[in-house]
Every structure is written in C-alpha cells, then in structure tokens.
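input
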Amino acid sequence: MGIVVQNAFTVQTPQLIDDRTKHATVADALQSITPIRRTIGLTVFITSESKAYWFRDGITNDDFIIKAIPTSSPTPFTWNVD
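output
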C-alpha cells in the first residue's frame, strides 16, 4: 500500500504559512533561511526596507537581490503584412 501525498491545496488564512517569506532585515533573512531551505525564485519581504528581495540566479547570499519592478515595457511585436 502506497502513501497518499497531497500535491495541491487551498489555504484560506490571512497569515503567512511559510516562515521564509517575511523578515525584518536582509541579515536576518540570510541567517534564518539556511541554504537547504532556499530555492531559486524565492521572494522574501524585508519589513525594515519595505522591499522584496529574491534569490534570482542561485541560492547563495550573493544571489539575494532586490526584486526590481520593470520601468519600461518591452517593445510590442508588429506584423509586416504586405
């Protein structure tokens, strides 16, 4: 008999369910989120700065950077129809 693993669920709570996603400072986040718990793309809100940081290209401390908001939109694609 196998073990049933739940792979999708909905949580209806106003509280964060993952303790990795909100920290007071960058130093606190990097100390608290050990490398084994880091993933590329993990976004963390830093409350002292009111900014979001993320592990963009890896899971090292150097990969933890401010998640920038794009300042310009990409050039729209145009069709050449003759």
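quick obs: Strands lie at 22-23, 43-46, 51-55, 64-66.
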